[in-house]
Amino acid sequence: MKDSESVGGMHNPAGQKAPRRLRGWALAAILLALAGSGISVVAAARTADNAAQRSRSAFRLTAEQAKASLGLEVQRDADLLSGAAAFMQETPGFHPAAFRRWVADTRAVARYPELIALATTEPTPHANACPRTTLAGKPAIVRYEAVAQQAICHGKGVVALSPLDPKIVDFGLSLGGVHFLGASIAVYRTPTPPGTAAGRRRAFIGWATIAIDPATLLREARRHLTGVGVALTTRIDDRLTFAAGPRAHNAVSTTRLANGVTETVTGTVQGESILADSSAVASLAGGIAVSVLLALTLFLLGTGRARAMRIVADKTDELAFQALHDALTGLANRALVMDRISHALARCGRGGPPVAVLFVDLDGFKNVNDTFGHSAGDELLRTVGERLGGLLRASDTVGRIGGDEFVIVLEPEGNGTSPELVARRVLTALAQPITLPGEFEVRLTASIGIASGCQVDTEELLRDADLALYAAKRAGKSRYVVFEAAMQTAIADRLGLELDLGRALDHNEFHLVYQPTFRLDDLRVSTVEALLRWQHPTRGLVAPDVFIPIAEESGLILEIGHWVAAQACVQAAAWRARGLDVAIAINVSSRQLAEPGFVQEVAEILEEAGLEPAALTLEITETSLVREPKRVSARLHELRELGVRIAVDDFGTGYSSLAYLRELPVDVLKIDRSFISGPASSDESAALVNTLVALGRTLQIETLGEGIEDASQLRRLLDANCEFGQGFLLARPQPAKQIEALLVASAARRNPVKPSEDSIPAS
Ligand code: C2E
Ligand code: MG
Ligand code: MG
């Protein structure tokens, strides 16, 4: 790690270029899609426009066709009327009956489906009299005959029913619900109408009239046309409009036909809008789809590499984070903490203030783990991490570097809060209760070691903080201690000892010495206590008071204790095999007692050594009895089941209650040396010894005075009726061989009558 920024900020050139490239390709793709879509719109508009034009010209063509075919129909009808007029003119002495015959002969009714009637109307001698009309046509028309006649008679709807007008006139007429379209022509005897009115009156024969069914006419005219409506409006009455075909339309073509009839052709032409033309819509949709696909293809092809780079960059960031952070709490891990410390130290070396490191260790975290389970322990660590993080400035670092070990690095910023202040805040913050899953509330304390410096290296600073932490733990936990140079030698010494202790078993550096305990009435040996000795290769003999606490803290005591028990039991069994009636006592630490398999372990050791359980006494200090009363009580009862004896060692130092003692399966109380030979061996403690002995008697527990160094102390114990005693006055701890001699002597004292027979073969 060369640069802290490279750690925190994850500077990554690929990671920065990649999004820029990605944006470039996205822009190109969007432009392509837009251009393609634009072209599609223009093309679709063209298509729609062409379609509209085609539609309009198609309509015009259809309208022309409609006009032509209608004109043709009308022309046919006009020809028929002209034929009728010619017949009237050319028939000398014209008579209506002859007209009827002519109509029949021409088969006009069959040939002209639209024909309703052909009529002749003759003038009457009196100007005001109704002219006589002869009607010929379809039988259906007959019932309209009277009506038609009347209409013609009264000139209803007839425009110019006058012999003076030589032209064909047409009319539209609605009679009794039947619509007619008609025309009349004035017929004269001369081939051309006379030039004067008097001449025309003289030459006038009558009117020839045709009545046509407009619906049929229009149907005929529309026979080959589709999609258009055709309407005819007469000149006379534009309300009288005859129409056929669809009404809905958006295009109109109007033509004046001959004789004042207006033809209107209506139809639907396509609009110019793109949406009006399905093929335009289809081409637009297709065009846009193709453009988008092309754009997408461009983007994917273009960004394939960019995306791959991005993924790599993301993964790199992720891995870098994982490599430098604690998975459980998300705090910095050891590597990152070390990196931060070394950078802070580098800044400090350039003239900045010293760097402070706080080593925080939770007190009794193992208990939480054991009692509530590991997931609760994890939750607790997360909460602690959050609380610690909440206390610090952004520039500071908090990391987790081990199970329940946290490190805080205070960056040197000049205005820096003192590390002691931060430590006090940490203690306060952690003292707040923490609720674990399952609503369990726990209260934590922590021990903190503080070290600060400038001209040190990272490892050194962290180790100093660790040493201060160790001092805080030893001073009773739940506090902070600032590192001092003196600690280093003391603790380094201890750490060295711990290291050596780990190797001592393998190097056969341990051995046992034995100190007998005696019946005070006859001074015979009752039990022999095994005491551990460590012959250190350079330090010489190390006292158990020095190394036993280290072994307990480091957990080495489990292995060592096993070795002691096995060794002592084998020795006791050997003595007993030689006929020496001796029991053995071993010291058991609270760590051993707490082990779930401890009772089983003792049973196996006894079994292997071939020692009966009653010959073994386990000495447990009073302080470890009171530490976890429930568990200890259960464990002692199991041991009692096994048949071993139990002694309470150093009794009087642990403040155990009488009631509690009563509950326990205790066989011996070993009254602490301080009451016998120590500085507290005053009259007051003599009184206490009396009380303790009396208490033992009440509870039926044997009492033993420890540390008897002179006769007066022995006297006092005898006076107090104490049954057993141990001390330098009676016997010092000695190697097995010397003890054996002592045991033999003791046995001889028990059997003064036959010492030689009972003498033990020398080992
Ligand atoms: P303890 O179990 O109370 O053992 C008695 C200690 O008092 C021994 O010290 C012994 O030498 C000392 N002593 C006996 N008589 C006198 C006397 O008249 N005057 C004085 N001043 N001292 C006397 P030691 O052997 O140094 O052991 C110290 C402690 O270390 C033991 O106290 C015991 O608690 C522990 N220990 C020794 N061996 C073992 C072991 O194998 N396992 C465990 N867990 N603890 C052990
Ligand atoms: Mg002892
Ligand atoms: Mg003792």
Instruction: Count the domains.
Output: 3
Tally of contiguous helical segments: 27
Largest sheet: 8 strands, mixed, barrel
Radius of gyration equals: 65 Å
| Total beta strand runs | 25
Q: Structural class, please? A: alpha/beta
Shape field: rod-shaped
Strand content: 15-25%
Structural features, described:
51% of the residues lie in helices and 20% in strands. The longest helix is centred in the N-terminal third of the chain and has 78 residues. The chain is an alpha/beta fold and 763 residues long. α12 crosses α13. The strands form five sheets. The protein has an eight-stranded mixed β-barrel with strand order 17-18-20-21-22-23-24-25, surrounded by four helices. A five-stranded antiparallel β-sheet has the order 2-1-5-4-3, sandwiched between helices. It folds into three domains: 303 residues, Beta-Lactamase, CATH 3.30.450.350; 155 residues, Alpha-Beta Plaits; 254 residues, Alpha-Beta Barrel (TIM Barrel), CATH 3.20.20.450. Bound molecules: ligand C2E and magnesium ion (2 copies). The site of one magnesium ion (MG) has 4 residues, from β22.
Give a topology summary.
Elements: H1 4-8, H2 13-90, H3 96-105, H4 108-111, E1 115-122, E2 132-137, H5 139-142, H6 145-153, E3 169-175, E4 178-188, H7 197-203, E5 204-212, H8 214-221, E6 228-233, E7 241-244, E8 251-256, E9 262-267, H9 278-324, H10 334-349, E10 355-363, H11 365-372, H12 374-391, E11 397-402, E12 405-410, H13 419-431, E13 434-436, E14 440-442, E15 445-453, H14 458-474, E16 480-482, H15 485-504, E17 510-519, E18 525-536, E19 540-542, H16 544-554, H17 556-577, E20 583-588, H18 590-594, H19 598-609, E21 616-621, H20 622-627, H21 629-642, E22 645-651, H22 658-663, E23 668-671, H23 673-676, H24 683-699, E24 702-705, H25 711-719, E25 724-725, H26 736-750, H27 755-758
Parallel strand pairs: 15-16, 18-20, 20-21, 21-22, 22-23, 23-24, 24-25
Antiparallel strand pairs: 1-2, 1-5, 3-4, 4-5, 6-7, 6-9, 8-9, 10-12, 10-15, 11-12, 13-14, 17-18, 17-25, 18-19
Helix pairs in contact: 2-8, 2-9, 11-12, 12-13, 14-15, 15-16, 16-17, 17-19
One magnesium ion is lined by residues 649-650, 670, 706.
